[in-house]
């Protein structure tokens, strides 16, 4: 039995309880078009199993998801005659996650389409960056 959440709209899509514009499906993954696309062809790729965020995803699903992202990404680009492709993935509401079933956005891009991503800034002082890098690296030891 794969993990499921009875209240999850994406689990309902996996179960075909609600319809979607499906573009790909295999044993572990499914891809379908986002109902509110950034640009036409904007696709969502996800595991069929319900895991809330990227950090909950079992490592063994990573390889399969990467292969599906690559295949679907190529097809989305070709179908929309795109010049580029963004991969986006939100975790937790603070980062804009609306549906708590881990998923990856594939967004076709066209040269000069005017879509801007997030603004970038800098660090307050030279030590802040290296100290933060050391803290993160320490948590990864
Ligand atoms: P998130 O903000 O969680 O990363 O993205 C959730 C995405 O799911 C949104 O872009 C939203 O448009 C899409 N979405 C929400 N409900 C449905 C649905 O019922 N069907 C489809 N195809 N997309 C959905
Ligand atoms: Zn789910």
Features:
single chain, 141 residues, alpha+beta, HIT family, subunit A, five-stranded antiparallel β-sheet, 3 helices, 18% strand, binds guanosine-5'-monophosphate, binds zinc ion
The largest pleated sheet is described as: 5 strands, antiparallel
Structural class: alpha+beta
Supply the CATH superfamily name.
HIT-like
Task: Bin the strand percentage.
Answer: 15-25%
User: Distance N terminus to C terminus?
Assistant: 34 Å
So what's the overall shape?
Answer: globular
Give a list of the ligands: guanosine-5'-monophosphate, zinc ion
Q: Which CATH architecture?
A: 2-Layer Sandwich
Strand order within the widest sheet? 1-2-3-5-4
Mean pLDDT: 96
- How many domains in all? 1
CATH class: Alpha Beta
The number of helical runs is 3
Number of strands: 5
- What is the share of helical residues? 25-40%
> SSE string, helix = H, strand = E?
HEEEHEEH
- pLDDT < 50 stretches: none
